[in-house]
Amino acid sequence: MPSVRNFSLVKQERLTEDVFQMELKTTESLSEYQPGRFVMVEIPNGLQQLRRPLAIAAVDLLTGCISLIYRVVGQGTEQLAKLVVGAKVNLLGALGNGFNIQNFQVGDQVLLVGGGTGLPPLMYLAQTLGQQGCLVTTMVGFRTKAQIFGTQVFEQAGQLQLATDDGSAGKLGNVGTLLNAWKMNNCRHVFACGPLGLLKAVQQRFASQSVPVDLSLESRMGCGMGVCAGCMVSVNGGTLNQHICQEGPIFSAAEVQL
Ligand SMILES: Cc1cc2nc3c(=O)[nH]c(=O)nc-3n(C[C@H](O)[C@H](O)[C@H](O)COP(=O)(O)OP(=O)(O)OC[C@H]3O[C@@H](n4cnc5c(N)ncnc54)[C@H](O)[C@@H]3O)c2cc1C
Ligand code: FES
């Protein structure tokens, strides 16, 4: 069974108009909070009965903290944004399969592609791959300059390529624009997380290439543990249905039907 734990909120920071970062502290082991995994967050004050899924954006073993970065889109995330330092936050998990990066080596070239609230899991991935000595290039897209967050993490981990829909920062366009200009070289692996359109663009861009591509999917989630069947996705040419919460959220682009 996944763990259920109370964390203490030690920091709540506004990153953009509607994106917040929470730092949550525990005295227990953080070994299960691996890149690509997620937690189901209990929404305080009992208004929302269902927990909400959020990706793990960072883990700091020295301080015993994990970071969650979330956009306020509805009642659940609105309640999270009201929490103040000292509040108890109850998390179920870590859940899901996570990114399979154990065998990556120093000098391996890796491409990350993300947008919007798909960035938090890629932030943790970029940091981990950078520490493993991989050469990490990250392509990120935002609508406009005011919505940018998290880019320092990607710059610290390697190279950042940025695009905005209105050209107010980086290249004018979206990640599709960046992908079109991308030269393969010796890329070992591609990872992507973001809106459906972005995932489809990545899937299409690399469909005829031999480089492995993993996509981190999102969906509404009731339980996060494979019980409610609210998060199914088709794989293997539509012959098999799998739970995004349990067999995912990371799926091979060659197998998943978007
Ligand atoms: C594995 C996983 C990891 C995630 N990680 C993050 C993260 O790191 N940061 C982040 O900001 N969000 C993340 N999400 C999305 C996040 O779970 C939802 O935004 C959140 O549950 C919305 O809750 P709410 O009560 O505020 O909004 P609700 O009132 O539940 O919904 C408000 C609006 O948002 C839409 N919506 C809600 N959830 C989703 C979803 N999963 N996909 C598409 N539309 C949705 C609804 O249709 C509705 O229009 C993740 C989702 C999954 C499945
Ligand atoms: S969210 Fe319930 S089965 Fe996946």
From TrEMBL:
<feature type="binding site">
    <location>
        <begin position="69"/>
        <end position="71"/>
    </location>
    <ligand>
        <name>FAD</name>
    </ligand>
</feature>
<dbReference type="InterPro" id="IPR012165">
    <property type="entry name" value="Cyt_c3_hydrogenase_gsu"/>
</dbReference>
<dbReference type="InterPro" id="IPR039261">
    <property type="entry name" value="FNR_nucleotide-bd"/>
</dbReference>
<keyword id="KW-0479">Metal-binding</keyword>
<keyword id="KW-0411">Iron-sulfur</keyword>
<dbReference type="GO" id="GO:0006221">
    <property type="term" value="P:pyrimidine nucleotide biosynthetic process"/>
</dbReference>
<feature type="binding site">
    <location>
        <position position="228"/>
    </location>
    <ligand>
        <name>[2Fe-2S] cluster</name>
    </ligand>
</feature>
<dbReference type="GO" id="GO:0046872">
    <property type="term" value="F:metal ion binding"/>
</dbReference>
<dbReference type="GO" id="GO:0016491">
    <property type="term" value="F:oxidoreductase activity"/>
</dbReference>
<feature type="binding site">
    <location>
        <position position="245"/>
    </location>
    <ligand>
        <name>[2Fe-2S] cluster</name>
    </ligand>
</feature>
<dbReference type="InterPro" id="IPR017938">
    <property type="entry name" value="Riboflavin_synthase-like_b-brl"/>
</dbReference>
<keyword id="KW-0408">Iron</keyword>
<dbReference type="InterPro" id="IPR008333">
    <property type="entry name" value="Cbr1-like_FAD-bd_dom"/>
</dbReference>
<comment type="similarity">
    <text>Belongs to the PyrK family.</text>
</comment>
<dbReference type="InterPro" id="IPR017927">
    <property type="entry name" value="FAD-bd_FR_type"/>
</dbReference>
<feature type="binding site">
    <location>
        <position position="223"/>
    </location>
    <ligand>
        <name>[2Fe-2S] cluster</name>
    </ligand>
</feature>
<keyword id="KW-0249">Electron transport</keyword>
<protein>
    <recommendedName>
        <fullName>FAD-binding FR-type domain-containing protein</fullName>
    </recommendedName>
</protein>
<dbReference type="Pfam" id="PF10418">
    <property type="entry name" value="DHODB_Fe-S_bind"/>
</dbReference>
<dbReference type="InterPro" id="IPR050353">
    <property type="entry name" value="PyrK_electron_transfer"/>
</dbReference>
<keyword id="KW-0813">Transport</keyword>
<dbReference type="Pfam" id="PF00970">
    <property type="entry name" value="FAD_binding_6"/>
</dbReference>
<keyword id="KW-0274">FAD</keyword>
<dbReference type="InterPro" id="IPR006058">
    <property type="entry name" value="2Fe2S_fd_BS"/>
</dbReference>
<dbReference type="InterPro" id="IPR037117">
    <property type="entry name" value="Dihydroorotate_DH_ele_sf"/>
</dbReference>
<feature type="binding site">
    <location>
        <begin position="76"/>
        <end position="77"/>
    </location>
    <ligand>
        <name>FAD</name>
    </ligand>
</feature>
<keyword id="KW-0285">Flavoprotein</keyword>
<feature type="domain" description="FAD-binding FR-type">
    <location>
        <begin position="2"/>
        <end position="101"/>
    </location>
</feature>
<dbReference type="InterPro" id="IPR019480">
    <property type="entry name" value="Dihydroorotate_DH_Fe-S-bd"/>
</dbReference>
<dbReference type="GO" id="GO:0050660">
    <property type="term" value="F:flavin adenine dinucleotide binding"/>
</dbReference>
<keyword id="KW-0001">2Fe-2S</keyword>
<dbReference type="GO" id="GO:0051537">
    <property type="term" value="F:2 iron, 2 sulfur cluster binding"/>
</dbReference>
<feature type="binding site">
    <location>
        <position position="231"/>
    </location>
    <ligand>
        <name>[2Fe-2S] cluster</name>
    </ligand>
</feature>
